[in-house]
Amino acid sequence: MKIGALTGGGDCPGLNAVIRAVVRTNANRGGTTLGFLEGWRGLTEHNCIELTAEGTDDIISRGGTILGSSRTNPFKDATSVDNVIETIRSTELDALIAIGGDDTLGVAHRLNAEHGINTIGVPKTIDNDLSSTDVTFGFDTSINVVMEAVDRLRTTAESHRRVMVIETMGRHAGWITCFSGVSTAADYFLIPEEKPDLDHMCELLKQRRQAGKMYGIVIVSEGVELPQVDGFVTQDTEVDEFGHVKLGGVGEIIAELIEQRTGIETRVVTLGHLQRGGAPSAYDRVLGTRLGVHAARLAHEGRFGQMVSLRGTQITSVELSDAVGQMRTLEPEFMSEAREFFT
Ligand code: F6P
Question: Which residues line ligand 1 (CB under 6 A)?
């Protein structure tokens, strides 16, 4: 069997573990694997490399993706879709494994449903916001990066008696913020799923200072909407090929507001792409490996139009059609538990 693999969308730690597992599982069954470079662009531009079990054996510890990634959307025009289909035909692929988030998997689904291409999806994103899977790999590494950063910021905040505002990624889901907030005993955190109560936040910071805690840690999701801003805070007016804006900058506004309303000196740190970089955690390596093994097995079983998924501790699969287009926001229970610490 000849399998093609690609990684699309924002990169995340654990992608190389999936690639390694797909290649090895396929090789164990006598198959060969082609890696398409830079997401769907590799298929529109016919750009691929052969991947071997020996050549990919030690990539598990590397962050990012050896294949490169992009936010290319072949469905933006008919020629690109034709090019993808032509590449699949001329490289004689029996199956195509797309490793990505909602956009990448959406393309895999459409290629399968509308053009009969044998696609299989593997869910990834640091945002942990994909429905039809309990956890996405990349998330664990990401929250550990945030946790370490906040632990470091705490010591300087304490020395200077400041409030430190930390802006996190995660788009419209508060998983990264909530998990890093709980794991660092942050004084307050703001997630996109909830209307921010800025009065309560400032009041609490003042109360804590009066009670003797002379510094504060506030974690803010990049996707939080503020009443004083029309919509989301974005870096510029550009959108990507899937129509997404570049979020970023809400932390600055929150920091200014805290300083004005409380009189406490406040600084802001935007963690940005640090949260996606570096070596994957053990959890993400294992999850990525398991998903890759099962994706290649699905290909050999001829079960296309599916996405591998984690349910509890089991790897299972779901229809790609059911998996895409539904964002999984932070489950309210996590915030309700977290709120015990900032009411
Ligand atoms: O979806 C993953 C993610 O890291 C988001 O949390 C973030 O908003 C976005 O990607 C950033 O994308 P880019 O790398 O294109 O700036």
Answer: 10, 101, 125-127, 169-171, 222, 246-247, 276
Q: Are residues 157 and 266 in the same domain?
A: yes
CATH code of residue 161: 3.40.50.460
- Is residue 35 included in any domain, yes or no? yes
Helix (H) or strand (E) run with residue 105 in it: helix 102-115
The residue nearest atom 13 of ligand 1, judged by CA position, is 10
Cα–ligand 1 centroid distance for 71 (angstroms) = 10
Just list the catalytic residues: 127
Ligand 1 atom 3 nearest Cα: 10
The model carries a pTM of 0.97
Looking at the fold, whether 118 and 246 belong to one and the same domain comes out as no
Q: Whose CA is nearest to atom 15 of ligand 1?
A: 10
Number of H helices, E strands in the chain: 11, 13
For residues 126 and 210, membership in a common domain is answered with no
pLDDT at 336: 96
Tell me the C-alpha to C-alpha distance, in Å, between residue 97 and each of 53, 295, 297, 306.
Answer: 16, 7, 11, 10
Residues 26-50: pLDDT tens digits?
A: 999 999 999 999 999 999 999 999 9
Q: Total structural domains in the chain?
A: 2
> What is the pairing mode between strands 314-319 and 306-311?
antiparallel
CA of 109 to the centre of ligand 1 (A): 22
